[in-house]
Amino acid sequence: EIRTLTSYMMRSIRPPESKQTTTLLVAVKCRPLTAREESKCRDILKVADEKVVLVSDPDSSKDYLDRVQNRSKEKIYAFDFAFAPQLTNRDVYTTTILPMIGGVIQGLNATIFAYGATG
C-alpha cells in the first residue's frame, strides 16, 4: 500500500507532457535608403532571397583589388525571414506575427522583440 501511494505521488508531481515546442524565429526587415543616403552612399545591402541578406564592403575603392586577388568582402547572413526594402510592415506582420495570434488566444505564450533605429 505504501508503494502504491509513493508511485501515485511520483506520477502526480511529474510535469505535464506537452506537445508544444519552443520556437525562436529571427526576421530582418531592410529599410529603404533615404534620399540623402541615395545621393551620397552606395547601397551595401541586398536581400538575396526570403532568408538571406548579403552585406558588401562599403569601401568600393577596394573592389577591383579584391576581385583580382579573389577575396570577397561580402558577408552572408541567414535568417528565418528576410524582408526586402520594398516590402511593407504589413508584410512583416502577416508573415511573422499573425501566425502566433491563434496560439496566444488559446493560452500559449508569445514574445515579440522588435528593434529598429528611428530618426
Characterization of this structure:
It comes from Taxus chinensis (Chinese yew). Residues 23-119 form the Kinesin motor domain. One of its GO terms (molecular function) is microtubule motor activity. The model has no long low-confidence stretch (mean pLDDT 80). The chain contains four helices and five strands. It has helices at 2-12, 35-40, 63-68, 89-105; strands at 27-29, 45-47, 52-55, 75-78, 81-83. The strands form two sheets. A three-stranded antiparallel β-sheet has the order 2-3-4, with no helix packed on it. A two-stranded parallel ribbon has the order 1-5. The longest helix has 17 residues, at 89-105. With 119 residues, it is of the alpha+beta class. It is elongated. Helix content is 34%, strand content 14%. The protein has a domain at 23-99. Strand 2 and strand 3 (52-55) form a beta hairpin.
